[in-house]
Task: structure prediction
Amino acid sequence: MGMGMGLQEKYKTGQRLVELHARAVAAPAEFDLMHLSWDLLPGVFSPSHTASTALFGEWLPYPLAGHFLEVGSGAGVISVNAALRGCAQVTAVDVSEVAVRNTRMNAARHGVTKRVRTLKSDLFDALEPDVRFDAIFWNSSVIEPPAGFVYSNELERAIFDSGYRAHERFLLDGPERLARGGRLYLGFNSLGNFAALQEISDRAGLKMDLVAHATRTSGSYEVEFQLLALTRVS
Ligand SMILES: C[S@@+](CC[C@H](N)C(=O)[O-])C[C@H]1O[C@@H](n2cnc3c(N)ncnc32)[C@H](O)[C@@H]1O
Result:
C-alpha cells in the first residue's frame, strides 16, 4: 500500500521515523552495514532503520581516482565507502553539526581521514566557489511536510524537506559544481514527492534517468528506492 500513499500519510510515516530515531539512539551506538561496523551519534540519520544507505552505497558508480562529493553524509557510511572503493578525494558535507562529527569519527575508524574532508555546509554553501567534482550525490530528505512546517531538531532535516527547497537548490546549483564529464546523482524513494521533483528537474533543464531501483518492506508498507542520474538536456 505504501507506494500509493498520499502526502499526509507520507508525512505521518516521516514523523514515525523521527520518533523511532529518538527512541532507538539516546547514547552513542554502533551498527553493522556493508561488511563494516560504524559509530552512530544520537540525532544522526540511522542507516539501520531504512534500506536507503546500503542500497545507494552499493549502487553508486564511484568516480575511481576522482573527487566525490556527498551532500548530507549523516553517519558517513557512503563517504567512507567512496574512499575505500577508490575515490582519490571525498568531500562530505552536512547541514547538521552532529552528522559532520559522526562522519569524521567513521572516517577515522576506517583509516580514510586523509581522503575524506568533512565540512558543515548547507548544500554547496561552504564549498570553495571553484572546486569541481566528478560525482555529486545526495541521499535526500525526501518527505515534503505540510506548508508552514518548522524544523524542531536537526534529525528532522534528514527526513523532511520543507517546500522541497533543498531539492530545488540541489538540482539548480548541482550541475554548476561538476567537473567536465561529472555526474549528479540523487538517492530518492517513493515516500518523496516525485511530481514536485519532476517539475524542478524540468525547470532546471535536466533529465532524470533511473540508474537502479529496488523495493523493500519497512514495517507495514513498501518503499521503492531509486538512484537517479540528473543530466542537462542540451
Ligand atoms: C536521508 S539522510 C542520509 C544520510 C546518509 N547520507 C546516509 O545515507 O545514511 C539525509 C542527510 O541530508 C542532510 N541534509 C538535509 N538537508 C541538508 C542541506 N540543506 N545541506 C546539507 N545536508 C543536508 C541531513 O542532515 C541528513 O544527514
Summary: The longest strand covers residues 206-218. Residues 7-24 form the longest helix (18 residues). The chain is about 30% helix and 30% strand. The mean pLDDT is 94.
